[in-house]
Specification:
With about 220 residues, the chain is an alpha/beta fold. It is about 45% helix and about 25% strand. It has 7 helices and 7 strands; from the N terminus they run ααααβββαβαβαββ. The protein has helices at about 1-15, 25-35, 40-45, 50-75, 125-140, 160-175, 185; strands spanning about 80-90, 90-105, 105-115, 150-155, 180, 195-200, 205-210. The strands form 2 sheets. A 5-stranded mixed sheet has the order 1-2-3-4-5. Strands 6-7 form a two-stranded antiparallel ribbon. α1 packs parallel to α4 (about 50-75), α2 (about 25-35) packs antiparallel against α4 and α5 (about 125-140) crosses α6.
């Protein structure tokens, strides 16, 4: 399975040229890809804990897919994209899949990306939300890194998982400032992907308009 994921990653690199990302855009893009692939070393493939290594590789590649899709549509408005970021919470760190900023005119819109896989649900996700993300929001540690409170974007494998992770997140973090999309939705392109909000009263995911991820109107 890990080899399959790495083959997918090579395909991702090949697709760089298909987006016409030349010059500075291509350099930035290759920098992000290089950073993510730097986390998948030889030791991962040889590890006795190969299952966990494969999980991590899959997350890095999913982050790459999200970035590739985002860059293809919003390259002129994407102020930055930083993969695999660490935030400090007192004496602990919290690692997220990425952070990025989209400029809406002169207004910055801040996001934190987290790729959530089936192996994270429910145990690991409950712990991460309760012990790390909740104090990051509640005690406003986010102000160390952002001018405006960021919106969380979660990339789930499917809608069933999206619902479960949303229930855990809203209950544990006490906020509805997040949106969820799925691997299948993202495969159509981020501008065509369906994003969902969690309706806690109805206990279901509701599609929402995510115009921030649509192509910018030409000047």
């Amino acid at each position: 399975r890990l080899l399959e994921e790495l083959e997918d990653g090579l395909g991702l690199l090949v697709r760089l040229g298909q987006h016409g990302l030349g010059g500075l855009h291509q350099d930035v893009h290759l920098g992000v890809v290089h950073h993510l692939f730097g986390h998948i070393g030889i030791q991962d493939t040889a590890s006795t804990n190969s299952y966990r290594s494969a999980e991590q590789a899959a997350k890095y590649l999913a982050t790459n897919e999200f970035y590739l899709s985002l860059m293809g549509v919003k390259k002129d408005d994407l102020a930055f994209f930083s993969p695999t970021v660490n935030y400090s919470i007192r004496t602990r760190d919290i690692r997220m899949s990425g952070m990025f900023r989209i400029m809406k005119g002169k207004t910055p819109v801040e996001f934190i990306l987290e790729v959530v896989r089936s192996s994270d649900i429910p145990t690991y996700w409950i712990k991460k939300v309760g012990d790390q993300i909740s104090p990051f929001i509640r005690d406003q540690f986010w102000k160390r890194y952002f001018r405006l409170e960021p919106t969380f974007i979660f990339l789930a494998e499917d809608l069933d998982q999206a619902l479960e992770l949303s229930e855990i997140f809203q209950r544990g973090a006490g906020t509805d400032k997040f949106r969820v999309t799925t691997d299948k939705d993202l495969s159509a392109g981020i501008d065509k992907a369906t994003f969902y909000k969690y309706d806690s009263s109805a206990g279901k995911m509701v599609p929402v308009n995510a115009s921030i991820f649509h192509p910018s109107n030409p000047a």
